[in-house]
Amino acid sequence: RNIETCNGNGADSDDLDITHFKNPTKNWDNPDHKSACEAHWVVEKTYDYFLNEHIWQGYDSYGSKLITWVDVGDSSFKAQGSSGTIYLGEGDGVNYDPFTAIDIVAHEFTHSVIQYTANLVYKGESGALNESMADIFGTLVEFYAEPDLSERDWLLGEDILINGGAFRDMSNPSLQGQPNTYKDDNWKNITPSCGYLDNCGVHTNSGVHNHWFYMLA
Q1: Neighbours of 151 (CB within 10 A)
Q2: Alpha-carbon distance 15 to 129, whole Å?
Q3: What's the chain's average pLDDT?
Q4: 108 is annotated as an active-site residue
């Protein structure tokens, strides 16, 4: 599938040197390899989902190389994806586990798909749609790939939060401070000066489209 997973060794995403995971014993049941194995497996499953369900190969439909970096950055709070590259943090072991959950990795994969299709500008309402589409496909891949039926849900990020909770809830976004409907009480207003506030609320206003998809499904 032209998929690689590399070791960030805690470096920032601007200072990464290609380091592959190697194990001559072929036994990958090792704590040092856990994040790499999880992330690699999820990227494979996301690739399979887009190919089997949408006849879309990789992130650009040409099967170009996908590279995932785990253990990225001094900050453990890291999940980012574009141009076929995904960066994932290791978590801090107190509040966050490694950012290798199905919905998170598939979400970041989808940002590259969006980039090579709709290319929604990452600001304001188009940015909220960008984030929502990534949440939707992250959830769809979870339903597609998660072997445990009880683990399939409409929450985002719940599997890495050590103390419970979720980043977002598609079934009822207001529970996580997001709007359920357009311009309700949780809506972040878009003003000329809102750019520094999460690119005008892209991670907040995405709740509207997330909830729409939940009701549709």
Answers
A1: 13
A2: 31
A3: 94
A4: yes
